[in-house]
Amino acid sequence: MRRTRAVGMVLAVLATSSCAGWGGSVGGGGPDSINVLMVNNPQMVDLQRLTADNFTRETGITVNFTVLPENDVRDKISQEFSSQAGQYDVATLSNFEIPIYARSGWIAPMDEFIAADPGFDQEDILAPMVTSLSGDDGQVYGQPFYGESSFLMYRRDVLEQAGLAMPANPTWQEVADIAARVDGVQPGMAGICLRGQPGWGQVFAPLTTVVNTFGGTWFTEDWQAQVDSPEFTEAVQFYVDLVREHGETGAPQAGFTECLNNLIQGNVAMWYDATSAAGSLEAADSPVRGMIGYAPAPVVETDSAGWLYAWSWGIQAASERKDAAWQFVSWASGKEYEQLVGEQVGWSSVPAGKRASTYENPQYLAEAGAFAEQTRAAIESADPRNPGVQARPAIGIQFVGIPEFPDLGTQVSQQISSAIAGQVSVADALDRGQQLADDVAERYRSRESGS
Questions:
Q1: For 14-45, what is each residue's pLDDT tens digit?
Q2: DSSP state, residue 60
Q3: Taking the chain, what is the end-to-end CA distance rounded to the nearest angstrom?
Q4: DSSP state of 52
Q5: What angle do CA 130, 358, 167 make, to 5 degrees?
Q6: Which sequence ranges are marked TM in the entry (predicted)?
Q7: Beta strand 143-148 with 270-274: parallel, antiparallel or unpaired?
Q8: I need a labelling partner for 309 at 20 to 30 A (CA). Which of 38, 375, 406, 418 fits?
Q9: What does the mean pLDDT of the chain come to?
């Protein structure tokens, strides 16, 4: 998850009702208008700018946007959708929230709309995205606007200088060996950058994928906490040792942005993180454009290890304008919209990572050819229901798809960041994490036993 994604959905917030101080405005919501609550990411801002002259002109439906920073929009969406006030018809949700909201009955299933709209071409949506945006009942509850997985990015010239070659499918031990050998090959250059910043969507985005491939898991299928298990411990110890020995300066506070800047500025030779970073690395003004290689997420026990994330559209169950809401969702997540962005904004701004056809579009490939196939392969190999070596109690790769995880993951991440800083041992950090995880697990065991 990218740097702006490190915020949680706290259950206490869901119960609040005050909306004082929120930005944006909502229109009257007549039959020919809808209200959309949306995060202020750059590609969403492009969408807002393009809507009136394209979607509204074609359909006659006016879209009233409320656009907020991520921390604010997540809180406002949780308030609005949990109360089912019906004020907003559509909102931007991630694949973390959508299965939870579907389970709660807060968002509407989309299957009937999909069936009546063959032009949307649901079969073109990459399969892992469909899985991650479906409910327990198998119905689709969200459509992706853009998506990402994770892969390893590395300086090809630096590895060549050290007489090394990146394996086609590297293991974490091979990556650690390469990091040791390229550390200091160029003055001031560390071997690798790995997130160490606290947050369930910061350090635990990459770290949970490492845990998965080392054979660990947060919880067993029957809700037994596993944070201090041998596999979880081995994965975290490996990660902490690697970043302490061959990682970036200031690792305990390094997140997506810091690692991106480190790779661009030549301060590190490798970086494991989001596939969405490649667009910045290959931008026209990037000093490392054309120098970066892209390899699959490193593995140990699993065949693949990349994460899965998507900003997506959900329709509020209480909306009285679901037909118009679907028309907007269909347009915003459709092939034609991608073409529109490519032609009017630029192909590097296309909200990719969701459709197979995107990776067959020669205009897009001309801009993103250095990383397009690797990105598609990473997303298609992601399995949100089976990301490890054992069955899980909830969907998710780099997160556990339960409302309690943002708070749990953030608290444990603070311990991990302290371990990276050398302030506590990994064992002590995970002992505390196990206590926190067991408190969550006990609630689910109690619910399932009916006690």
A1: 332 222 222 334 545 456 899 999 999 999 99
A2: -
A3: 36
A4: I
A5: 85
A6: none
A7: unpaired
A8: 418
A9: 93
Collapse the DSSP code of 150 into the 3-class scheme (helix H, G, I; strand E, B; otherwise coil) and give the result.
strand
Q: Which DSSP string do the residues of 204-259 spell out, in sequence order?
A: HHHHHHHHHHTT--SB-TT--B-TTSHHHHHHHHHHHHHHHHHS-TTGGG--HHHH
How far apart, in whole angstroms, are the C-alpha atoms of residue 352 and residue 335?
Answer: 10
Cα dihedral 191, 197, 199, 203 in deg (nearest 10): 10
- pLDDT, tens digit (0-9, with 9 covering 90-100), for 156-183: 999 999 999 999 999 999 999 999 999 9
Considering only CA atoms, which of 405, 407, 427 is closest in space to residue 416?
427
308 DSSP assignment:
-
The model's pTM is 0.91
Angle of helix 97-104 versus helix 70-83 axis, rounded to 10: 10
Helix (H) or strand (E) holding 94: strand 90-94
* Angle at 316 (CA atoms; ends 324, 357), nearest 5 degrees: 65
H-helix segments, 7-147: 11-14, 42-51, 57-59, 70-83, 97-104, 111-115, 127-132
Judging by DSSP bridges, how do beta strands 90-94 and 33-39 pair with one another?
parallel
Confidence of residue 9 (pLDDT cuts 50, 70, 90): very low
Q: Using CA atoms, how far apart are residues 283 and 61, in angstroms rounded to an integer? A: 35
For 280-293, write each residue's pLDDT tens digit. Answer: 999 999 999 999 99
Q: Where are the alpha helices (DSSP H) in 267-404?
A: 278-281, 322-332, 335-344, 362-368, 372-381
Structure letter (DSSP) for residue 348: G
Distance from chain centroid for Cα 447: 29
